[in-house]
Records
---
Amino acid sequence: MSQNRPNPPGRGTGDRTPSRGPIPGMNMGCARWLLPMWILLAVAAFAWTFGLFDRGGVEAQEIAYSEFREQVADGNVEAVRIENQRIEGELRSPATVVTEDGTTVQYTNLVTHAPPFGDDTLLPLLEEQGVTVRVEPPDTGLAWWPILLNLLPLALLLVVGYTFLRRSQAQGQNLFSFGESRAKRYTGATQATTFGDVAGAYGAKEELQEVIDFLKNPTRFERIGAQVPKGVLLVGPPGTGKTLLARAVAGEAGAPFFSITGSDFMEMFVGVGASRVRNLFEEAKRSAPAIIFIDELDSIGRRRGAGLGGGHDEREQTLNQLLSEMDGFEPNIGVIVMAATNRPDILDSALLRPGRFDRQIAVDLPTMGERLEILKIHARNKPLEEEVDLERVARGTPGFSGADLANLLNEAALLAARDRRERIVAADVDDARDKVLMGLQRGDLGLTQEELQLLAYHEGGHTVVAAALPHTDPIHKVTIVPRGHAMGATQQLPTRDRYVYPWEYMIDRLAVMMGGRAAERLVLNTATSGAEGDLKGATQLARKMVLDWGVTESLGPVALGSNDSPVFLGEEIGRGRDYSDETAREVDEEVRHILEEAYRRAYTTLEEHREALDRLAEALLEREELTGEEVFDIIGLPPRSRPSLTGEEQDAAAEDVRSRVAGE
């Protein structure tokens, strides 16, 4: 049930203050007078729809033209007003009409329309009945209300567009400068970070110091015929300080420093990124000597034309322009390009050739001494008790990046503040490390006594095997307290950083992974799902031993695996396997043989130390968590991995294991 350490968290984006107001991006002043415009528009539409301007408030009943002639013939019409083909009439006595829904309506004013082909008999009929006739001349003026009603939506759009334009200009995003660079310019006066704020990374700082010296005193290099690299690529895992080194260069160098991220070049319109690259280099050349820093270069520097779907037009045009600016037909004088990425395997080969990014600087995970320096820097503003040993913390955090170490001390400070203490104690740092490694402590899961006993023996199996075998890392802590996705964990912390793993260490490591399953079989005669993570990790390690490291006798010193992992969709389809089906079968058999032998070693070791396993399981059920020193006191072994063995005895034990695994 031991759990691998989670990957460090990704880099976050800067917070942006959300826009406020009725319309995003519009200030409150515009909103105050925009609301009356909407009200005016609604009133005008209502008036135009119901014809209040034309009717003058007089209610009239519209009837058919034939009914109108009948009213005239009956002598019930007193006066009419004719305008074009519209006829309005006043009746001498109310008339009755039945509407379409069957209701009866009486009216004294009527409205009708003359036929478009005319009626020559209407005027004589009106004269015969003594009807007063008023003829209105046709309206030759402009129809202002329809014009205004048609122009109001256009005016509203213009106002909104003008408001957005003013807002974008206020934020420095001119609509007419869409293709201009968004890089921020820094100088030594505006950037306070220096190399003194960067712990470790001595090789990277030495390489970057040459760039700074060239910018400050270029004649010293020119006299000997040396040319500073045109491009410097910082490569390393996330959180190792690549961007921090770039900020330190900006603080150390007296030259202008232009900082931009790769995503700032990308837009939905093809060609905008290339335009911004041109604008950036033109601005840098005007300020030469200058430095351009592109963070997350892989967002625009990916391999061109890869994958099933081909390339991305905007990204590829941006990359082509960057290649041309760095080393194209026109010389690039006085501008040094720095970039950072944690995915150098997906970068285009043309970007990495000499003349562009001449120098690649590896920014690796810090060593134990570098971790100590990083912890001291991040502990400057944190009150620590004297019991907090930063050297011990550095020794117990192998594989931590600088960002992880900063997060570790921050979590410790949060735990101290949660308990309302003024200073950070050692327990806070230990709890913070457990939180970072294994996740948050889970509450009461309602585990039964039988399940707790199973967890205790499972973790006890890992611990006893780790304590008994000669080539394992020291035990730091064992717990059955659920954290994250793990129900328990056995923590082993090396006494030093390891860069080379010998055969003896790997086979002992596999046996420790199999210790939990072996304890389940030995004590409870069962197998549970709790060994899932152990089996996956052991299988992965065994396959690397066979495929990549060539440490087995049967297959010999040959690397059958491939380091070129597919990074684009469909790239793996056209790549065949590097070995035959018969070899693949042998690989599977060798992996299974190694894992079975590791399980047998773990099972045999637990049989030899069964009493120690029972005592450790009882202690875990009682106390739930034990330190490494407490573990060795309980199981009765020396507090190291069999230090009583001499060098010859360790070599003999390793040779015996090697012979059994190789099948000799």
---
Amino acid sequence: MNLQRPNANDVSQTSNRSRSVVPGSGLCTRCIDGCRGNCEVFKSSFRGREVIYPGPFGTLTAGADKDYPIDYSHLNIMGYALGAEGLPGGAEGTPDNTLFPLVDTEVEYGVENKVKMKVPLFTGALGSTEIARRNWEDFAAGAAISGITLVCGENVCGIDPELELDSDGKVAEAPDMRRRVETYKKWHEGYGDMVVQLNVEDTRFGVAEYVVGKLGVETVELKWGQGAKCIGGEIKIDSLEEALELQKRGYLVTPDPSLESSRAAFKDGALKQFERHSRLGFVDEEGFMKEVERVRSLGAKRVTLKTGAYPMRELAMAIKWSSEAKIDLLTIDGAPGGTGMSPWRMMVEWGVPTFYLQCMTNELCAKLAAKGARVPDIAIGGGFSTEDHVFKVLAMGAPYTKAVCMGRALMIPGMVGKNIGLWLQQGDDALPRTISQFGNRVEEIFVCYEELVEKYGRDTVKEMPLGAIGIYTFVDRLKVGLQQLMAGSRRYRVSAMSRDDVMALTEEAAKISGISYVMDAYREEAEQIING
């Protein structure tokens, strides 16, 4: 395992003075009185609670770096020289009808009002963090033209400076949420969906009533948690007036902006930002069922559930209750995940890692299916970024897992594309060499640009945010890579994938997952051939 250094990390902008570090504590082996820094204990001695969180807020996403005993690298993908599954009409495979571009990566999820996606992917929740707000046009348009689902996260209405509440304290108008929905609808073409999350605060504000009734949102997601943290959503606020307003709206804001000491510290410049926190949610079966029906009664065509890296008890509740409530999609988000703002040590050390959590999910889904009950459509999230991740998750979770949730990996191309546009505006010299080596015009830089022009027309593509083109290009890479892997495994549609299409490289991974150990996979068939 890699050495963990809990008192030095780029995400907290801290580092050890010494090259010799105590593995357990992360402290230098020799701590000197007079040291000029900059381990976490050093920095925390004068910046205190600020150092809990990744920084600077609003310009980064953070992902934990803990090296777990077992992860998806302990699986390898099977390739075959025999047969082909999933060809149209059940056709026999030939060298001409099994070319990898013929692999069908489309999937669908849902109960009655199903959603189709061109690729089995959707975004993580892009909620009230500053990085989601600033880049929304790129993220939303990119997801829409790529044909994947976009998730709008929690607290978007509640923190909107222009939020208008009615006499009952419910949302009457939320311009930022309206902007988000309208941006997605502008580019949406029938594949994918825009999902709006609902947490405790959103429920109190009547967000579901607003987005479904006034904005025409069709899917609402109930949220139990996420893989990065076990507390509610958090953001930072750099305005005393905004901090007081959010406190007035009912949020927990720390340090308390109403205290004179907090005001004085902010005036002095020692306190530079406040934190806004969401309340913890509590679940019970009766309350969950009532909330699902309440949201449906508002006119939502689909209700989904997002749960986090909780132990098997809460996982079983999520799966069983989703089955009984006919939830359209259950997203299970494992540790460590990544986020715009979570307590760093919590992100690293809390929760069930994704690999283990998916293994638990497979076991519980199989037991539910054996009872003859409906197994909800499942999506798995928690630290994925490449096409082999997608393949392994879908194969290991077959036939229940329908899609993979990617958080940071789908945000990066949106930010890259946006910044390419900004650099181009500043002149040729502003482009980094990593980009300018391919050209200094968007037509040269983006390999999919002319493909989009052919589909939409040049004038329309010029209106697209460049971040959207970045996301489209990245999703295209994932699609082609997935097609190649699936063709190598002779699986020509996602529903043809099975748990036999991956092998465990270690006996421990095989024990945890139930996937065949590499030395046992297809052993029986091999012996029959030899002995035949």
---
Amino acid sequence: MSTLSDNPLLQPPAANALPLFSQVKAEHAQPALEQLLTSNRERINTLLASINSGATPVSWDALVTPMEAWDDELSQAWSPISHMNSVVNSDELRDAYNACLPLLSAYSTEMGQNQDLYNAYKKLADSAEFATLSTEQKTAIEHALRDFRLAGIALEGDKKSRYGEIKQRLSELTSKFGENVMDATQAWSKTITDKAELAGLPDSALSLAQQQAQGKDKEGYLFTLDFPSYFPILTYCENRELRHEMYKAYLTRASDLYADAGGKNDFDNSAVMNEILALRHELAQLLDFANYAEYSVATKMADDPQQVIDFLSDLAKKAVPQAKQEFAELSAYAKEEFNIEKLEPWDVSFYAEQLRQHRYSISQELIRPYLPIDTVLKGMFETVQRLYGINIEEQTQFDSYHSDVRFFHIKKDGQLIAKFYFDLYARDKKRGGAWMDECRVRRTLADGSLQLPVAYLVCNFSPAVDGKPALLTHDELTTLFHEFGHGLHHMLTQIKTAAVSGINGVAWDAVELPSQFMENWCWEKEALAFISGHYETGESLPDDLLEKMLAAKNFQTAMVMVRQLEFSLFDFRMHKEYQPQSSASEKLNYIKSIVDDVRSQVAVVPVVEYNRFQNSFSHIFAGGYAAGYYSYKWAEVLSADAFSRFEDEGIFNTTTGQSFLTEILQKGGSEEPAVLFARFRGRAPTTDALLRHCGIQSTATGAA
């Protein structure tokens, strides 16, 4: 058993020290957190006692500077545990992580409801010093006061304690939801020994399946519900029964219909979801909001819930007619060419790919050889070097948690300004999807020096197989650029106050702007000339393939948009319309009733009765997107409109790039996103550019 003195999570803070991943064990987590939380409580109580007695006058340096340092110390201890729980999960690590959640939740609630701490911040906001503070410092204080209110600072007695109970339980439930999704995903697999059953599957998918089978000491081909394994079956495999089997397994993960090989169902999220919704609603009402959607919007760009509904409904009005037309064309094609009388959901991706190839002679697999990972990374780094004048250098010596992980430095004008980890490939015990998270935040240290920002960038691409390097599809390329855009937002900030530095303090419906913005370069010939390069010859993506890819860019984009609108409307309406007085049976059917109603308005693909996608909708039940999934579409309007300036002035125009850097990326959460956007674009955003980029016909103009 380790002692606190040799706990790698409790090493004395050193300027710009990185996590000691190789030394961190599950047993280190709880003792480290308990010691730091105890220490923080003591230090904060001492500080507040001194302020209350008048011995310490309230000032930025007396109040905010030490609070920020103590928060960061806690964050640096928790960061490696939280990250490793997502990327190298184990039973021991999961237990340790879950044991820490209630401790952190209780501490967060306690600080948010600390009346003396609130009074100190209020006193600072009302002081003469406030007028002399920088914009970022003022914003940090204003956000802190807002967050005190949203944490129930005004609550009393039973309501205050109930708020704490709800926050702690929600922390446990959202973690459980994510665990159930991961476990249900990884518990299912299928081995196929007859290659004939896999006709149509590209060599890359076959090689990966064969490699996975060998890794489990099995013959043939092993398929799982991880996206790099699942997606090729639905898109390319001619075996309709296999497509249906995998589709059903994927859509019933973590639901009442899930069962493992032994017939057990330990991962059903149904009750978890119901309890999460009930507690979110109760939390919102405790704070005098009508519902959780109203509570959610309080920290976002959108003015009120109705503006969000109107925004989504307006896009649906423009996209649904075209989406219906696209689906009708696909159905007709499947019937005429393949004698498919009724297009089922597990047929859509397959016949869409057939139609895409028929019309444009292009597929993801044709592009994949031109996107080897090292060439892509070099090209992506060249892109941002041209735009923002930064240089990125890979490091070979660093402490890591897995052999897949790579580490990089970012320099500007020869000075080191940021660092990041790249964890790119799918594997066992790793959460699905792609994300960016904070490892270190940029802030001023006590001695006046700077702590540099550090980011985790995580994807789940297919690894190298058959002696070939990892080769990306174009969809994966855009995912990579998307996450790197988040990373740049975090790492290129010039803000020195932690609460509004990088992605901190940024309204959730604006946080996707830099990420979606970066995706645009994946479609530009001038950029693809150096982003791509055949893994054998080095040849850039040929003009004929690029032209076909661009011609196919808007293939079924309306169908894609209405699917995103379906998710967004479902999420927002579910939180907005929730009624706690519903009967037990109504509660049981509430979530499904919202899904069904939304689909009746916007969905164009038929839905099977067993579809339980909501049971694995981690963004809203285990992530930060509750009553906020619409943020993707909201920010897509911003990103398309922002990029339209580059279209006008040149995609590598250094003046335009510098403007985006200084007005958006460097500002973090220090100012309102609408103000920053208008400063960059010269006006408020409109939906015109998004609809044009998606090939959706509309003459109407609407503001985000």
